[in-house]
Design a protein that fits this description.
With about 425 residues, this protein is of the alpha/beta class. It folds into four domains: about 130 residues, 3-Layer(aba) Sandwich (Rossmann fold); about 80 residues, Helicase, Ruva Protein, domain 3 (Orthogonal Bundle); about 90 residues, Up-down Bundle (Zinc Finger, Delta Prime, domain 3); about 80 residues, post-AAA+ oligomerization domain-like (Orthogonal Bundle). About 50% of the residues lie in helices and about 10% in strands. The chain contains 18 helices and seven strands. Strands 2-3-4-1-5 form a five-stranded parallel β-sheet, sandwiched between helices. α5 links the parallel β3 and β4. The N and C termini lie far apart (about 60 Å).
Length: about 425
């Protein structure tokens, strides 16, 4: 079911949809090397395959960890003969220096269009020499509707899917398959294929896949009340909103649903988001304790992991709440995204290299630790933003109240008010 054209790709429409960057690159035939990073089964290989199919360029796939420099040489020779080859290099974060040095001139010449695929953060795990010659795009877990669309295509496609079978999949079974893999389409398709091939046909030759069959093939139970495609994410949403609303019993109920479904990854990720998004500055020690509880749960696994998770949920529910942290960073991001970056003041610029002084970099900087109280009045924001205030403290807990008072004192002392 691998897509052959960009139009066939399910999900990732912010990259491949009409008018979006990869679609524009393909339409203009101005491809550049790129790195796609994100969880397994989210479409990295599909995007590479569809780009090749849409441009009619030769498409080759190698693995940076297991394939040798000789394999890269074969691709390079083919590129010299055919003009351009699209190379999907899986696990690009494991590319060693020898292979990297061989690839670099071919990337610069444009003979090889590299599409690197990785589940690791490329800004941390990929060599800067490769990173500087590629565009980096993040792919995200697919939505339930995206996965249901792809599963229905596989059920009806007679050439590449299961359309040659008289296959009937119940709505609740399809919804379960879509939600059971946390956005991993490959796993969802594998589960569908197993269900279809392992279920004996009835007297009429029809294969009937029920929710019970789907659960057996995915080795996971459906969430309680999971009768539609949105149930899984509805429970996660209700879990966060119950903690935000300080309803301990409701939060424990939704936690129990997620524990019963065995969805430890979603619980852990969501709890850490909640701790810093909804409690945050009002009780940062509780946020830190939540991270410890999550780490304990991951070490213990389920069912024992439910104990530290429950402790964290109870504390977060009963803690004062504040979203001032996320509001502050989003306000700052809005300025940056709208082009209000501003130049770094000269006295704050790096002065640790020869010639910096001649440029005026670092001149006039006052080292706070040389002054009483380790503080001195000076400007840190760019001139165009010197009056900006992104953080607006709340007074829902003693912790942030005290920080807020200090924030206001520093604003007044620095004459920004």
């Amino acid at each position: 079911m691998r897509p052959q054209r960009l139009e066939d790709i399910v999900g990732q429409q912010d990259l491949v949809g009409p008018g979006k960057i990869i679609a524009r690159m393909v339409a203009a035939k101005l491809l550049s090397s790129m790195i796609l990073y994100g969880p397994p089964g989210t479409g990295k290989t599909s995007i590479a395959s569809a780009i090749a199919g849409s441009t009619k360029y030769a498409f080759r796939k190698l693995n940076a960890a297991t394939d040798s420099k000789k394999d890269l040489q074969v691709v390079a020779e083919e590129a010299k003969m055919s003009g351009t080859v699209i190379l999907l290099l899986d696990e690009i974060h494991r590319l060693d220096k020898t292979k990297q040095d061989f690839l670099l001139p071919h990337l610069e010449s444009g003979r090889i269009i590299l599409i690197g695929a990785t589940t690791e953060n490329p800004y941390i795990n990929i060599n800067p020499a490769i990173r500087s010659r590629t565009q980096i795009f993040e792919v995200h877990p697919l939505s339930l509707e995206d996965i249901k669309t792809a599963l229905n295509r596989a059920i009806t496609d007679k050439a590449r899917g299961l359309g040659q079978l008289d296959l009937h999949v119940d709505d609740d079974a399809l919804a379960f398959m879509a939600g059971a893999t946390n956005g991993d389409l490959r796993s969802a398709l594998n589960g569908l294929e197993l269900a279809a091939q392992s279920t004996p046909p009835d007297d009429t030759g029809a294969i009937h896949v029920t929710l019970t069959v789907a659960e057996a093939c995915f080795q996971r139970k459906a969430l309680i009340g999971d009768k539609n495609g949105d149930a899984h994410y509805d429970v996660i949403s209700a879990f966060q909103k119950s903690i935000r609303g300080s309803d301990t019993d409701a939060a424990l109920h939704y936690l129990a649903q997620l524990v019963a479904a065995g969805d430890l990854p979603s619980i852990c990720r969501r709890l850490m988001v909640i701790a810093y998004e909804d409690i945050g500055m009002a009780n940062l020690p509780a946020a830190a304790r939540t991270v410890q509880a999550v780490q304990a749960a991951q070490q213990l696994g389920l069912p024992e992991g439910r104990i530290p998770l429950a402790d964290a949920v109870i504390e977060l529910c009963l803690s004062p709440k504040s979203n001032s942290g996320i509001a502050a960073i989003d306000a700052a991001l809005a300025d940056v995204m709208n082009g209000h970056n501003g130049a770094v003041p000269d006295h704050l610029k790096d002065a640790h290299y020869s010639g910096a002084k001649k440029l005026g970099h670092g001149n006039g900087y006052q080292f706070p630790h040389d002054f009483p109280g380790d503080w001195v009045q000076q400007q840190y924001l760019p001139d165009d933003l010197k009056h900006a205030e992104y953080y607006h403290p709340k007074a829902n807990g003693r912790f942030e109240t005290q920080l807020g008072e200090q924030y206001q004192r520093l604003l007044r002392a620095n004459r920004r008010r």
